[in-house]
Amino acid sequence: MSKNEIMEKIKGKLIVSCQALEDEPLHSSYIMGRMAYAAYEGGAAGIRANSVQDIKEIKISVNLPIIGIIKKIYENNKVFISPTVEEIDKLVKCGVDIIATDGTKRIRPGNITLDDFFKEVRKKYPNQLFMADCSTYEEGIHAAEIGFDFIGTTLSGYTEYTKGWEFKWGETKKLEEYDRKTCKGSGQTSYRRGRDMESQSAKASFGFGSLFCCSRNCHYKAKGNYKKICRGNYVG
Q: What pTM was computed for the model?
């Protein structure tokens, strides 16, 4: 699918994150495939998934756009979402529609900056869609300026300089400032709470200009709950 086709499929809709790490009870590519199918039946427009194995299984279960990541921890480094070119290579090979990677100002493994890293992967894969997982407005604007296709709030509250801070329903001024400014700066912005997604906060985010929303709460929400959220966010 082209960038415009993918954008049309996910515009104004919910992306569901189907992930379970090795130390979590639901860690299984088969289970993530079933979770993705439940999300699909509930109205989800796309899936965010971690690891080549999970992505391959999910592609068997559903025909939806996939945001792919590989979480890998390198010694003495805090960047873990698709941190190096090695992870990007694997994600491109398995055919994900959008590759998400850490879009913060932190130095990556090998003492590489985001700018140098992205310059390399963009040159290597000029037609691949990339999403920057950011933690602040400034990082989002910078990611847009260096050429990312999508900007996410994924790491808000997870970096050492945003720890303890997150978007909450009721903090609409903070949410609106991020979404409006980043949308204006990049043209295509995703707003991802990074935790649980409720109908009201998703509606507000769309109103502020977000292209799509993403919920990570796949482990706990059943098919019926997905329908409730998706219907609240303009998914028929």
A: 0.82
